[in-house]
Structures are given as C-alpha cells and as structure tokens.
Amino acid sequence: MKVALLGYGKMGKMIEQIALERKHEIVLKITHENLHNLSIENLQQADVAIEFSTPHTVLNNIKLCMEAGVPVVVGTTGWYEKIEEVQETCLKRNAAIIYASNFSVGVNIFFQLNKMLSRMMNRFPDYEVQVEEIHHTQKLDAPSGTAITIAEGIIENIPIKTAWVNVVSGQVDDAAPVVISPNQLLIESHRIENVPGTHTIIYDSEV
User: Fold this and answer.
1) 13 labelled catalytic
2) Is 135 a catalytic residue?
3) Across the beta sheet with 48-51, what order do the strands follow?
4) What was the pLDDT predicted at 175?
5) Considering 99, 115, 133, which residue would you say is the last residue of a domain?
6) Are residues 183 and 167 in the same domain?
7) Of 24, 115, 139, 199, which is the active-site residue?
C-alpha cells in the first residue's frame, strides 16, 4: 500500500517505521518545512493518507485529501468543532475518512469501561466526578481529544452533567480553588516535559 504521511512528528515517524516494517511504501511526507509539496497531484500517488499534524493545519489537509479522492485516517485532535463541516464535504465528494481521538485498543476499552462506571456512579449523587489529563509539553491542544471522549462518555450517562469545562494548569492561579457549577464536568489539563499521556477519572465525596 502507498501511504502519504501528513505530519512527521513523533507519531508520523512511528507510523513510518511500522509501515515500512509491514512492507508498505511511503510516497509522501509532509512537514512544516515542505508544505509546498502538499498538492492534489502528489496526494494522488497514495492509496491512503495518514494525518497526524496540528489542530491548525488538519482541516485543510482533510479537505485536500477529499479533493484528491484519497481516503484519510485522522489522528489529530482539536478540530472537532468543525466536524459537521467535514461531514458535509465528505458526503458531497463521496470521500472516505476515519477519525478518532485515540486509536489504541487499550484506550478504546477504557472508553467503554468509563461509560459502564459512570452508569453505576450515577446512582450515587454524593460523588463528584472530574477528569485529569497529563501530556508532554509538545501537546498543542488542551484538553486532549482522549479527555474529551472520556468526558462525553460521562456526560452521556450522568444526566446532571451537561457540559465539560477545561482548566489548564499554569494558565490560572493553581493555588486558587476551581469553581464550577453542578452541571459542569471539570477537565484539568497539565503539560509536563516528557510525559507521554496519562488520563485519570476521579470520583470523590466528602466522606
């Protein structure tokens, strides 16, 4: 299979290594240094594009893949507020896209366990729930897409929670208590050097 890599950071390099080990061919690698090579003509050399760039470039990359008629797998997060726009373009062009906040089998099992736990904990209103996520300092979006998926799973099963709110460590007074309304679900984001990614769900009561 011929693969186009849109984004050549840590994930892009890892995907390249695995693809080559499995005898696939990398026909295009796009970084911030060679954006001039990102064209419909070059994309059409590939059977599939794998998109792990940045929240600022992902939408343009997706649309360009759709114009080129190349299926695209998207691992970049931080763009889901534009999902309806992407879906419309996909339907209009009869294109193909797969996207997820996390492609790890273990994390997707965790997503399902989170939903099961939140359904159980909904019977215990004395417990307050929150989500904490820690990533390396190169992580550009906050909260992470994985944290958002976790929060959405909780909101789906605990009716009192209707929306999530994000607090990023270092952007607020960390010594001051975070005040949220009862219907809000707190996601705390921390950026620490060399931390690959940790997600924690906390259920806490006064007891």
Assistant:
1) no
2) yes
3) 25-30, 2-6, 48-51, 72-74, 97-99
4) 55
5) 99
6) yes
7) 139
